[in-house]
């Protein structure tokens, strides 16, 4: 649970109130001045949604330079950010030819495979030459190459399930699989902070959706008991099936799922467990096998294991791993398998190669080193941020660490000031987070060196002071000692 400091809550509400009032004021005049334009659309309903459109026009556009910054290199520890400018108060941004070399604290390149890798890159290039960039076909037509079948075997073996199916996109994996697994008469119980792909998949399924308090097994149990007692709406018949959906590491909070407790509740009430490991597979666990390995949960107790290849493996796509019958059923029925073009063979080869490195099957210990490094880097960075007085969300071992900003004025201030000092950070706000809970989301990579992290900490600390986001300041003497310690290390 995020508790906003009282004064911060007050100033944040006030700032949004001001932006809202000012936006309404501007809209009022726009209607008068643009009367002839709106008149052209007489008789039509507005094409844009009311609040989202207002939010985009009057709040987002003011700070849109902080989002979607174009990059002109691989998302390694350092990357090239393309400079942009605007001649119309940020409404439109134009790219320049200038590039700034920045420390990358925003990509999900957890193990560093997204940059050129001595083992993966040559193999991905070979695959590109042999198979081309696209299969130009769905899996059931001509889109299943030898690389695709190898990928599915490799993933199943890696995550510890009998079989797996791969898709071209992680988002689609959730949003297309849930409607195949469950429908009317079924019940999905979803963590309140699950990713949008899960929310949309659940909505598209037609099943009844109930939400439990984020990462709270006792509340999950309460919801399960109530729902089982209630049964289906109106008829009160028993649910056809119940699926509980959770994430391994929550992408906006950096929190690790309380999987052992959740699994035991699900077992008690005979509900299936669907685990989205987008941010945990490859990133945590002794051999990178995700939260099951980290928390000592038997993979046999997780019925549907979902994950993406876009983070730790430096590729694209997603997978579902489960029993042979489940995967076969998905292959016969899932529209994203039947009708969508299959994952690019070069991307598939990148994943296979990355898994081989992680498991040491490339004949080196680079995988183990990467795993040790991401853990050390994440824990070091998190503890230093906390010592500095930032409000940092998430758990130890998680490479995601959101720093709370809250106030809308602090979003661009933090992002722009960091960029000025060649540190690129990702800031996240509504609709990805609740309106009042804007944050900067730091993603740590195994490819960051200790010097990179120290530079980042120095910049973030300075900017944090400037912007006023050290909500829990340490005593000045202690802070000074800590700075000296960082330097000494
Ligand atoms: C928990 C979770 N699931 C699914 C996805 C979608 O994955 P992709 O970006 O690979 O499409 C994301 C994206 O970050 C995510 O955080």
From TrEMBL:
Cofactor: pyridoxal 5'-phosphate
Catalytic activity: L-serine + hexadecanoyl-CoA + H(+) = 3-oxosphinganine + CO2 + CoA
One GO CC annotation: endoplasmic reticulum membrane
Pfam families documented for this protein: Aminotran_1_2
UniProt keywords, alphabetically: Acyltransferase, Lipid metabolism, Pyridoxal phosphate, Sphingolipid metabolism, Transferase
Compartment(s) where it occurs, according to its Swiss-Prot or TrEMBL record: Endoplasmic reticulum membrane
The EC number(s) this enzyme carries: 2.3.1.50
SUPFAM superfamilies linked: PLP-dependent transferases
Residue ranges constituting the Aminotransferase class I/classII large domain according to the UniProt record: 101-460
Domain of life: Eukaryota
Pathway: Sphingolipid metabolism; Lipid metabolism; sphingolipid metabolism
Topology in the lipid bilayer: Single-pass membrane protein
PANTHER family documented for this protein: CLASS II AMINOTRANSFERASE/8-AMINO-7-OXONONANOATE SYNTHASE, LD36009P
Protein known as: serine C-palmitoyltransferase
Biological source species: Rubroshorea leprosula
